[in-house]
Amino acid sequence: MTMTAQQLIALLPLLITGATAVLVMLSIAVKRLHDFNATLTVIGLNLALLSLILVTRQPPQQITELLVVDGYAAFYMGLVLFATLACATLMHAYIKSYAGNREEVYLLLTLSVLGALVLVMSRHLASLFIGLELLSVPVYGLVAYTFRQKRSLEAGIKYMVLSAAASAFMLFGMALLYAESGTLSFAGLGAQLASAGMLSPFGYAGIALILSALAFKLSLAPFHLWTPDVYEGAPAPVGAYLATVSKVAVFVVLLRFLVEVPAAHASLWPLLLSVIAFLSIVVGNLLALNQKNIKRLLGYSSIAHFGYILVAIVAGGALALESVGIYLLTYVVTTIGAFGVVALTSSPYQGKDADAIFDYRGLFWRRPYLTAVLTVMMLSLAGIPLTAGFIGKFYVALSGVAAELWWLLGALVVGSAIGLYYYLRVVIALYLPTPGMRRMEAELHWGQHAGGIMVLIMAALMFLLGMYPQPAMMLVHSASIVVFQ
Fold this sequence. Notes:
Blueprint: H1 5-10, H2 12-30, H3 34-50, H4 52-56, E1 61-63, E2 67-69, H5 71-95, H6 104-121, H7 125-143, H8 150-181, H9 186-196, H10 201-217, H11 227-233, H12 236-260, H13 269-288, H14 294-315, H15 318-346, H16 368-382, H17 388-402, H18 406-430, H19 450-467, H20 470-484
Helix pairs in contact: 2-3, 2-6, 3-5, 5-6, 5-12, 5-15, 5-19, 5-20, 6-7, 6-12, 7-8, 7-12, 8-10, 8-11, 11-14, 12-14, 12-15, 13-14, 13-18, 14-15, 14-17, 14-18, 15-16, 15-17, 15-19, 15-20, 16-18, 16-19, 17-19
C-alpha cells in the first residue's frame, strides 16, 4: 500500500499520538521520572492537537477502506485530544503522591486515546472493533491502577469481564452482518442492505448485537449496571476519561454507522432506540436521587445525559447531528470540570478518593475556588440558563420538537427536573459547615498545580459556551454537513 502526502498529513494526529506512546514507553524503560513522562505526554498530545490545523486544510481523505479523515472526524479528534489533555493534567496532580509506580499511567492513557482516534475515523466494522479494543483494554488497567484499594481492583475486574462480553456480542453481530451482506464497510453495508429490501433475521440479529454492544460502552439502560461501580472504584481522573473520551469516541462512530447504514435505523429501530433513550433518562435520574457518593451520582447522571443525546439520534436529520455535537462538547467540558474537583480534593491523600458528598460539606469555607467550580458545573449539568449545559439541552429539545417526539421530550423535561434536585443537593452541601467537622482536604497552591488551572479553564469555557455559543455552533455545523455529503 502506498500513502500519499495528503493521506500522511491526514493521519498526523494518529501518528503523533502513537509516537508519543512509544517515547513514553522508552522513557520509562530508561529511567522512571514522573514529571518528565507527564510532560512528554502533554507535549505529544498538544502536538497531535495542533496538527489538526494542517488536517483541516486538506480535502477529506479516504485511507484504505478502514479510515476516513473529514471535517466530522477532525472536529471529534480535536475534542478527544482536548479532553485527554485535561485528564492527563488532572492525573499528574492526582497521582503525584501515589506510593507505587506512577509513570505507566501515561502510557496507558496515550494508548487508549490512540484507540479513540481510530474509532473517530472509522467507517468499517474491522477498524471499529480494533479501535474499540485499543480504547478499552488500557482503560482496564487505568481503572484498577490504584489496585491496593479493593474498590479500584474490583472495578477494573468488573469492567474487563463485562466489556469482554460486550465485545463478544459485537463480533458475533459483525459475523452475522458479513454473512448477510458480504462486506464490512459502512458504505457497502448500507448499499447491500438497502438493495436487499427487507432485512433477514440474520441482518436484524447482527445489527441488534452491534447496537447492544455499543449501548454497553455508552452505559445506556438496560446495559448500564457496570457504570456506578466502575466510576466509584476508578481514580477520579480515570473516571473523567471514561465519562468523556471513551463515550464520545463510541458515540461518534455509532452516529456515522447510523448515517451510512440507513437500515440500522429503519423499521423497528427508531422505536427500540426511543425505548432505550426513555429508559436511560428515567433510570439514570431516579437512581441518582439517593446517592451519597458523588462519583456514583455522576455515573448515574451520565446514563441520563446519553439518554438525552439519544433523543436527538431518534429525531434524525442534519439538526440531530448538530445537536449531538453541541451536547457532547458541553458535556465534556462540564464533566471534566466536575471530576477535576474530585481529583484535586483527593490527590493529596493516600487511600480512597474524597468521593462522599459529606466530604464536600462546608468546602466553601476552606477551598472557595474549587467550590465555585463545582457549583457551576453542577448547575451546567442541570441545564440552568447561561451555562453550557443549557445550550446542549436546548438543541436536543429543538431536535425533538422538529420530529414531534413529544413523549421523549416529556421524559427530558421530567428527567431534567429530577436532575436539578440531586445536583442542588451537592451544591447545598458545599456551603453547609458542620461544627467540629474533621478537615478532609489539604491546602493546594494553585500556582503550582496545573490541575487547578485546568478546572478554572473548564469553568471559563462552560460560561463561554453558555453565553456566546455561536463559534461552537458554526464549528459543529460545518463538521455535521460533511457526514451528509
